[in-house]
Amino acid sequence: MELTTIFFDLDGTLLPMDEEIFIQAYFRGLVMKLAPHGYEQEGLVKSIWTGVKAMVKNTGECTNEEMFWKAFTDIYGEKCRQDEGIFEEFYVNEFQKVQKMCGFDAKAAEVIAELKRMGYRLVLATNPLFPAIATESRVRWAGLSPEDFVYISTYENSNHSKPNLDYYKEIMDKIGVTAKECLMVGNNVDEDMIAGELGMRTFLCPKCLINKQGKNISAYRQGELSDLPVYVGSLKE
Question: Which domain covers residue 62, as residue numbers?
């Protein structure tokens, strides 16, 4: 079946980064923001990770947003729901400083523009563990616009997370495509290349490779972002 839709991971794919350095900077900023409001550093970080694990294990009974706040409220009580505005302030302001911990690939915007010109629908299939406000910021850090994509997964609109195959199925159902029409582009072997199990084509970007299990990656189509237009063009031949 002809390729119609290209799914892109964000962190480490369109937005170059060292994931560990990014997470450290993110937590450092969040702790500084919330400490004056009664959140102790070690407990806060542990609680955020508890919420993240709950989202990763989400089997679809609610959104990731609801799953996160349920886990967080179980630890801190209803007080934390009253502090949601402080979290929003963080993403609008302090979170923006984390951009300096990320790289930048000018080719990302060029490739996205070219693929749109070629008529492909583009999906931002970033692991939906962040709210839309944070995800859209990271899109802009990559030199892109949220309007470049027909769909962006966030914790508000997702009921599953990577590497759950239902995460990909959920997006495909929402935008009305089959796996055979789709290509998944990413840097994470476990979370992105797993889309191939559904019948999607896959394209691995090894520049910021994440391969925690040390899998053999020789079977995956690989290359730089700049190689994508030529590769997808070859699929029509």
Answer: 20-99
